[in-house]
Protein: Transcriptional regulator
Amino acid sequence: MATYGSDQLAVLADPSRRAIFEALRDGPRAVGELAADLPISRPAVSQHLKVLKAAGLVTDRAVGTRRLYRLEPAGIAALRAYLDGMWSDALKAFAELAEQTEEEQS
Structure:
């Protein structure tokens, strides 16, 4: 079974979703604003935002007749925790291998 962080990585594997996610780093934006900067249609941007929202990476709020999307700090924190855990495991495995190699050479 996949963890929350790895599910988010799968969502970000799509280049269009990753471009939308990265565009939101600068602050909240409406679908039309995002679509204007991307080579995909406005309905496609909406569908990608729906997937990002389901993964907990973005949230939205109504502002008049528009919806503004922004990055979700809790979702990003979960993704970072997942990556930090992977990094820690990789460093631990590297240290164990280095110690084992050192012992074999002694």
Notes: Strands lie at 29-30, 58-63, 66-71. The longest strand covers residues 58-63.
